[in-house]
Design goal:
Elements (H helix, E strand, L loop, with lengths): L11 H20 L13 H19 L5 H17 L9 H17 L7 H13 L5
Helix pairs in contact: 1-2, 2-3, 2-4, 3-4
Keywords: Membrane, Transmembrane, Transmembrane helix
Protein name: VanZ-like domain-containing protein
Pfam family, one: VanZ
Length: about 140
């Protein structure tokens, strides 16, 4: 596992902030009464769940560190939000959505063990180079 005390990113606060904005978006989209229409490619509900939780898990495993707490957090969040939908009176709880969320978490965690796991680090390096002021 990565050392959680060592942060390899120059703009770590930005990447972490973006991650929490993504979490907020998932929470809002999970609890609003009427969902906005998704692009046709992602029109299938289970694909939206799978993709959202895979991206969140992969992102947090990069922005913080690859640790068991992120998959556990996102599985719990997905299950909690799905259960809360049943209390809205408009939306319903779907156990297959919980399963799709959990599979997405598993894939996101799996991706954190591949070369894709260095994508955020490479992007951070690129941003750093672009924003550096040349020394005279």
């Amino acid at each position: 596992m990565n050392d959680p005390t060592r942060n390899p990113y120059r703009y770590a606060a930005v990447w972490r902030g973006l991650g929490w904005i993504m979490v907020a978006a998932v929470v809002v989209l999970s609890l609003v009464p009427q969902l906005p229409k998704a692009p046709s490619l992602l029109g299938w509900d289970k694909a939206q769940h799978f993709l959202a939780y895979a991206v969140l898990t992969a992102w947090f495993c990069q922005a913080y560190s690859r640790h068991w707490r992120w998959p556990a957090f996102f599985v719990a969040l997905g299950a909690l939000l799905e259960l809360l939908q049943g209390f809205t009176g408009i939306r319903t709880t779907d156990p297959f959505d919980i399963l799709a969320n959990s599979i997405g978490v598993s894939i996101g965690l799996g991706l954190s063990f591949t070369p894709l796991a260095s994508g955020l680090r490479r992007f951070d390096d690129l941003v750093s180079r672009c924003l550096e002021t040349p020394s005279e």
